[in-house]
Every structure is written in structure tokens, then in C-alpha cells.
Amino acid sequence: MKSALVVIDVQRDVVANAFRRDVVISNISGLVVKARKEGVPVIWVQHSDDELVKGSEGWAYVDELRMADDEPVVHKQFGDSFEGTKLDVLLQERGVERLVVCGAQTDACIRSTLHGALARGYNATLVSDAHTTDDCSWATPPLSAEQVIAHTNFYWKWQRTPRAAGGTSLTAEVVYT
Question: Residue 140: pLDDT above 90?
């Protein structure tokens, strides 16, 4: 089953206050290096909206992660990286059947994209120590970022459709092929 690494929204303003920011970015960097070494496609996703203005300093990817010239960037305006973008076409062109997903924000774009992948028939592995979010202190009841991440890792292990499956993996245990 051919895989692709999908790196979602690791942008300066998105992860500025993220839980375990530096550890997560380091893990993502390791996933990118491993994918490139193994010839696995790396697809970058970059969000923009009224608060995260395309082309602004905060919209840019963090300095720790560098996109290669031949790696596609998917620009999106919705949580689900598939909605209104070319992501599905890029994956089909590359024969991808399984996504390895990492990035930010766990409770928004990560979850939306994971469900979008399953709905479209892609298997989707969430890298459990390579996604992050901010505290959800505004929620009822208030949730810490750690709780949101733990819950997402827990429930994503069991997600299934008739055509596809979810699952989780630690960075050190990711197998692309």
C-alpha cells in the first residue's frame, strides 16, 4: 500500500502556543527526513483565513521545517484538507492509498482531514506524538491540549469504514510501506 506523509498547518501563528511545540516539530522533521529517504511523497498543507492571512509572517511554515522544491503545497481555507483543494488529485496521481498524518491543530484541521480521508477511501494513520494543539480552555468543560491529543489518539485507533481504516503510530514506529 503506497503511503504519503501529509504535514498539516505547522505554521508560525498556528503552533505559536501549541502543546509540546518543539518536540512535535522535531518529530515531524524526523518523519519528513525518513519519507524523503524512502522516496515517500511529502505533501504540505497550509491554511489561510481572515485571521491567518495568506502571505503574512504568521501564515508561513515554521523555520524548523523546510519544504523541498518538488514537494507540493496544498493551500486550504477549510479544516478538512480535501475540501476545495487539489489534495485528492495529488494523492491519486501518486497512487497513494494511505496517509500518514501529522501537524496542527489536533481538534480542528487534523481531525477534519482524518475523517475526510476515510470518507474518500484512504487509510489514515495519525502519528500520535507528531500532532499538537492549544489548550481549549474556552470549551465546556475546559480541556487541556494534552487531553485533546490523548482523546484523539485513543479514538482514532478504532476508526473504520467499509473501504478504509484509521490507526495510530508513534514517530519512531512509522512504517511507510
Answer: no
